[in-house]
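Internal ticket #5521
Category: modeling
Description: The requester needs a full-assembly model to guide mutagenesis choices. All entity lines are attached below as received. Residue total reported by intake: 723.
Assigned to: D.W.
Attached entities:
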Amino acid sequence: MTNADNFVDSTEIRPVSSKSLYDKCWELAHNLWWSWHPDVIAMFRDLAPERWRKLDHNPIALLREFTPEALETRASEMVLESRINYAYRRMNQYMDSRPEWAAQNVGVLGSKPVAYFSLEFGIHESVPIYSGGLGILAGDHVKSASGLGVPLVAVGLFYDQGYFKQFLDHEGWQQEEYLRTNIDNLPMQPVFDKEGQRLIVKIETDSGAIHARVWKMQVGRVDLYLLDCDLPENGESDRGLTSRLYGGDSRMRIRQEMVVGIGGVRALHALGIHPGVFHLNEGHCAFATLEAVRCAMEDDGISFDEAVRRIAQATCFTTHTPVPAGHDRFAPDLVQEHLGPLQRQLGIDFHQLMSMGRVDVNDHGEYFCMTVLGLKLSRRANAVSCLHGIVSRKMWAPLWPKRSENEVPIGHITNGVHLASWLAWQMQTLFDRYFKPDWIDRHWLPETWNEVEKIDPGELWETHLTLKSLMLEFVERRVKRQSARRGENREISMDPNVLTIGFARRFATYKRATLMMQDFDRLLRMMDDAKRPIQFVFAGKAHPQDKPGKEFIQRITQLAKDERFHNRFVFVEDYDINVARHLVQGVDVWLNNPRRPLEASGTSGQKALLNGVLNCSILDGWWAEAFDGSNGFAIGSGSSHADDAKTDARDAASLMDVLENQVIPMYYHRDSDGLPHFWIRRMMNSLRTMAWRFSAQRMVADYVLEAYLPAAGGVTCDMNFRQ
Ligand SMILES: *Cc1c(COP(=O)(O)O)cnc(C)c1O
């Protein structure tokens, strides 16, 4: 991995003491390590709190508003010198150290790193190259690999317009706005080749070549390489190829996927990085396998068949969706146009190429499916929760006609979240007082959370209320701002004593954001209850082409304006990591009601539980394996009707029952000391039984032990690592 550093314009090495505060801040801002250290974030914020907020929490943009002298002055006014020095020292210590876990566990990966491919990475709100859960998961994977010291390089695309900004018009209809990100404000360094030229990779197609330049972002100890097509070498239309995430038609999509997969492998090759493992985060990146096969044939003079065996052995594939439309499929002529050159270099015919992406290789009309390619060209494939494993084995059983469904070689590794990114510092400080000193390093081990029992219930509750108030203030501020934008000047005041339910995620229809509205009168009664009312905070974007998803949003905004609901329905626009962080840290209940079994895992509820928020969820995705009867609330009994309408009606009734008979009474039941002891008991159960298990560090450790090491070590016998 370090080979790569030779080609990167790295800052010269000087004795630490000679660096100015400005230089130290600049270096801190250029390693996204800062993004999961609340004290470092607070340090940047305190340099200029108003600007910090305006600049989307972007430290580089902030620093560019200071001269080094002005920064010195400001730092001394705010007594920030020692905080800057301390942060700087800690970051360097982090970068120079090798975690014990890695020393003991990474084995052969030490010389042959993992190459992790993903179309999106959600690391921080100031780096807008993600859209939702898949990207956040990739970001959390990278951060956790850094934390454990796993040798891993990540590969993705740089989108200069990212995903859209959402705002709602007077009718509550979602509008999309694409803003150009200023590259100078991002922690990206240009990457150079061995001759000191800007590294540009070229990807041939039968209708001309696509060029992409390479950037590097530092995420703790992990290098994240991002490819970007905005180059004069490209024609006008290709210059915008990587402008937007999920913005184009299937032609644009196949070209993007070639850039990340084929271009990504070429970039690593050019940098002298020789991965021992290829990890494909979803089918989008599966072209990487074909390019890796080509490289193996060229470098080692082996046959196509042998190269396929070798690359499949080294490849781990993670599938993320049981929704059929979620799998990319390309028409044969589109594949021919784009993969023609690669197919000829591989020495295979077009039919052979198409076979790698087809379930039925004899069906010449079948489209080329990226998930099929990923499954065929990897020796290890996994789903992202136990239930999703079952669903995926069923879904892809036709690929293994000789096997029974439960012998289909797709295992599962359940998703998790990066604790330091999602845990509120107030909660962390509370845990610090009760847990053993290095608990954060061991947070993914079950014994760490036994200490939860020692926490004083009153303190846990007070901490939660603090976070709840901060969240409600944030929501009020946002509502004021977004209504001002529409010229409506609406202001609301939210009562912290009211049971507050959060629902924030993409507005895909299967997530059923409006399920609670099926029995409108019953809902109204609950929200209008004088003694025990409830309120909802919503957020989430619908895909620009998803009309039903947008209708869900509109429905919610109508209720938000309906006086009978007393402002107890609130929609926060432009859901992103920042909004997510506020909501998962401050609501009382996190609601999740997808149509089972379509939520592969879900991760937002895992973020919520870390902060003492209780989950109330359909038994789908991660919750199907997490709920134990006393660590949250379950909607339904974990079964679905063949008829969607019946499932929806049944789940809606169950949701209302759970709220009315369990959630609301438990929340409002107070003992003589004013505390909801039954509720707090559940918060503690939730933390103790789940905080370690749904950690991304546990997840990455599982990937290392169950997927990466066998893949890198050439262990071929175990194709099914189902737990
Ligand atoms: C965590 C997160 C998601 C994923 O949430 P799900 O519950 O898995 O749908 C999506 N968007 C943002 C901004 C997130 O932080």
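Resolution: model delivered.
Comment from assignee: The first helix runs from residue 21 to 29.
Ticket closed.
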